[in-house]
């Protein structure tokens, strides 16, 4: 009887969760677009993250024994997330979708540099190669919409969002390394900061953003979109991201999250019926391949196959 060989997981749980998050966030663009047809940007952000905060508020009890430095770090994470959502949302309003898709993908390129400076960890050669492949894939995917840069306000905001994304991943790693906190506790704080910040900005700068909520009856699309954004794109996604950052390197996290535009294009094609060219599909495939290149332990895979062949 042939001895049973030990099984090895191709992707660690943290990496697998991030891959699923990229799929979920890739679908979120069309969902958000549907919800914004009924409700303004800042009010929708306040509603989405306000519901999330209420559902997770019980997890704030873990902050009672946290130091002042830890509390300050978690608050900074919330402010970074608020800044990311604001720059991304208003940036898209002032630039072309193709430009936005390409510029936000620069997060994948910037994260290894930020990690090197902030965390003193130099990414490996395989990670740099994966970053280059992902960048080229993003160019092909975005150029499907004919990239053209005059570098207007929108382009600047999207570029700022890419920098903030890279910074946020590295700062989260630094905060969780200094004082480990449950991922749901960090997510609760972030949700509270984004909800309060969005509400305050709407109150001060955009009173017209506050409109009566659509009634449940006759607005199933809106409330279905809100529930999907709350439970899939916020509760699960931010919990999984915070969980994974504590167990992986920021560059690996960024590469996996960088596959989000590829899944967004797939969702837009299948669900929304949008056209994606052959170059776009090749670019999306390159982005996903780059994620797998940097995260799958290929040496273990080949070693397992060689061992299986030897045993046989």
Automatic annotation (TrEMBL):
Record keyword Glycosyltransferase present: no
Residues covered by the EamA domain: 14-141, 153-294
Keyword annotations: Cell membrane, Membrane, Transmembrane, Transmembrane helix
Compartments where located: Cell membrane
Pfam families assigned to the protein according to its UniProt record, in alphabetical order: EamA
Transmembrane spans: 36-58, 70-94, 100-119, 128-147, 153-171, 183-205, 220-241, 253-272, 278-296
GO CC term, one of those recorded: plasma membrane
Chief location: membrane
Membrane topology: Multi-pass membrane protein
Keyword NADP: no
Leader sequence segment: none
The protein, known as: Multidrug DMT transporter permease
């Amino acid at each position: 009887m042939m001895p049973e060989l030990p099984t090895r997981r191709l992707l660690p749980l943290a990496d697998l969760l991030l891959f699923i998050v990229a799929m979920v966030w890739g679908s979120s663009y069309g969902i958000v677009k549907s919800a914004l047809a009924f409700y303004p940007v800042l009010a929708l952000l306040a509603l989405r993250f306000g519901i999330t905060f209420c559902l997770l508020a019980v997890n704030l009890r873990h902050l009672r024994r946290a130091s002042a430095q830890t509390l300050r770090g978690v608050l900074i994470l919330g402010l970074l997330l608020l800044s990311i959502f604001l720059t991304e949302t208003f940036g898209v309003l002032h630039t072309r979708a193709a430009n936005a898709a390409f510029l936000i993908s620069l997060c994948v390129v910037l994260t290894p540099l930020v990690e090197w400076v902030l965390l003193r960890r130099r990414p490996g050669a395989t990670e740099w190669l994966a970053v280059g492949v992902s960048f080229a894939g993003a160019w092909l995917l975005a150029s499907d919409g004919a990239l053209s840069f005059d570098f207007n306000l929108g382009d600047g905001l999207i570029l700022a969002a890419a920098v903030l994304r890279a910074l946020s991943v590295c700062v989260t790693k630094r905060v969780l390394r200094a004082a480990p906190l449950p991922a749901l506790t960090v997510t609760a704080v972030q949700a509270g900061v984004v909800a309060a910040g969005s509400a305050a900005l709407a109150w001060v700068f955009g009173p017209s953003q506050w409109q009566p909520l659509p009634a449940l009856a006759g607005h199933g699309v809106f409330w279905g979109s809100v529930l999907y954004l709350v439970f899939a794109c916020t509760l699960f996604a931010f919990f999984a991201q915070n969980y994974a950052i504590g167990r992986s390197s920021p560059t690996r996290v960024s590469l996996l999250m960088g596959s989000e535009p590829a899944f967004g294009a797939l969702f837009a094609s299948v669900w929304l019926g949008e056209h994606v060219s052959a170059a776009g599909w090749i670019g999306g495939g390159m982005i996903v391949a780059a994620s797998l290149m940097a995260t799958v332990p290929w040496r273990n895979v080949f070693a397992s196959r060689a061992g299986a062949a030897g045993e046989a």
